[in-house]
Amino acid sequence: MDKQGNTYTFLYAAAMVIIVATILALVSQGLRPRQVRNELVAKKIDILQSVNISSTNRDAVDVFNRYIGENTYVVDFQGNRVSGEEAIDIDMAREMRKPLEERFFPVYEVRLDNGELKYVLQMRGNGLWGPIWGYVSIEDDGTTIFGATFSHQSETPGLGAEIDSDSFQNQFRGKRVFNEAGELVSVDVVKGGARPGDPHAVDAVSGGTITSDGLANMLRNYFSGYEQFLKNIERESYE
Amino acid sequence: MSSDKEPLFSAKNLKLITTPIGPQNPITIQVLGICSALAVTAKLEPSIVMSLSVVFVMVFANLIISLLRNTIPSRIRIIVQLVVVASLVILVDQILKAYAYDVSRQLSVFVGLIITNCIIMGRLEAFALGNKAWPSILDGAGNAAGYGIILIIVGFVRELFGSGTLSFPGFGTFQVIPQAFYDLGYVNNGFMILPPMALVVVGIIIWIQRSRDKSLIESH
């Protein structure tokens, strides 16, 4: 057969595509369960990290069950619980496409060893190259941040990707979502450094301006989404 | 064809590995693959994992193309090469996601970027299409190693001076520059973690290499 002819070329291309597609489909199907499990475990590690409980790939599921277990629920923009939705199954990427008022907001309640109750809120936004997401835990006063952890899909290593470093995340401890008058202020990420003692600002990551701005937007967005829920917690804590 | 078989690691075959590491280095001499060298080298860890992934992709791509070289219709050979490289990269990405999830999270987009690495296509076109399987494997390994060594040197320098730390896959990040230095007023060079510094570091490596090996300097 003429190896430079059209028939051969067409047949060759067709056979190649079919073979490659079959191999990739098989590999993808075969590895899918492992990948899904990895993603779920990574999510649980992140949630626990936001209340400063560290866990590993191995024990994350047990630790999650011990501290959080079934104490998860979904709230809407009005702060009311939505029945029939599992917090851990909420697809944040899909929620992002809805207007803020119609989104579902997952809440994970953590009872720490010392008996304190923390609320972990889940967030998602856009960085420079792709999505960023995070978990922020709030004290039972409904305004003070207890801890935060952020992750990203594709921010630049050494620059924007530093949002997942401890030194950046630790700055959020003790910051406040509401001001003295009870108005929502969120926490801003300030380029060049926040004023010392400012309860509503942290230092941006150097060289990662767009990622930092995206993170500040994400916080502002989701704190306003969770605003009613947080106000409800605050009221409960006075009663 | 001569009847006596060439030994696997004959002088000629070994040269396929050593020349791309030294005098025919894909980055410093041929100036290929610069884009990914700039992107991943802000830290040592992604540099190492990227190098290993490129070794894997390049060895297998060279092997597969070399085995198929007499069947590939020349008019669609670039497409065939691209399909082989892209499939291998997807394989690496899927396997990392399933078995080394942490690493795959850190590398994120860069695994996909291996497809665009001009060194791989360049070696397929220049070597694997015209050579037998074993020399093609060696050529792939040599070029990927030459690429990887530069990546690791640049990643080492940039992380050390840019962040004061060194990170290794599987072992985490270590503070290398002691706190006492910072107390005395030492400051990390923030410029080091920006992409332009990768180019400057590569430039310095090229300078050193050329000053040691005069044969690399063009006569004009």
From TrEMBL, chain A:
Family of the protein in this entry: Belongs to the NqrC family.
Topology class, membrane: Single-pass membrane protein
Compartments in which it is found: Cell membrane
Domain of life: Bacteria
This protein's GO CC annotations: plasma membrane
TM regions (residue ranges): 6-27
Cofactor: FMN
Keyword field: Cell inner membrane, Cell membrane, Flavoprotein, FMN, Ion transport, Membrane, NAD, Phosphoprotein, Sodium, Sodium transport, Translocase, Transmembrane, Transmembrane helix, Transport, Ubiquinone
The protein's name: Na(+)-translocating NADH-quinone reductase subunit C
Keyword Transmembrane helix: yes
Organism encoding this protein: Natronoflexus pectinivorans
Keyword Cytoplasm: no
InterPro entries assigned: FMN-bd, NqrC
Purpose: NQR complex catalyzes the reduction of ubiquinone-1 to ubiquinol by two successive reactions, coupled with the transport of Na(+) ions from the cytoplasm to the periplasm. NqrA to NqrE are probably involved in the second step, the conversion of ubisemiquinone to ubiquinol.
Subunit field text: Composed of six subunits; NqrA, NqrB, NqrC, NqrD, NqrE and NqrF.
Domain FMN-binding residue range list: 127-226
The enzyme's E.C. designation: 7.2.1.1
Catalytic activity, reaction form: a ubiquinone + n Na(+)(in) + NADH + H(+) = a ubiquinol + n Na(+)(out) + NAD(+)
A molecular function GO annotation: FMN binding
Coiled coil: none
One BP term from GO: sodium ion transport
Positions of post-translational FMN phosphoryl threonine modification: T209
UniProtKB/TrEMBL annotation, chain B:
Name of the protein: Na(+)-translocating NADH-quinone reductase subunit D
Major localization listed first in the record, in broad terms: membrane
InterPro entries per the UniProt record, alphabetical: NqrD, NqrDE/RnfAE
Species, as recorded: Natronoflexus pectinivorans
Role, per record: NQR complex catalyzes the reduction of ubiquinone-1 to ubiquinol by two successive reactions, coupled with the transport of Na(+) ions from the cytoplasm to the periplasm. NqrA to NqrE are probably involved in the second step, the conversion of ubisemiquinone to ubiquinol.
GO terms under cellular component: endomembrane system; plasma membrane
Pfam families: Rnf-Nqr
GO biological process, one term: sodium ion transport
UniProt GO molecular function: oxidoreductase activity, acting on NAD(P)H, quinone or similar compound as acceptor
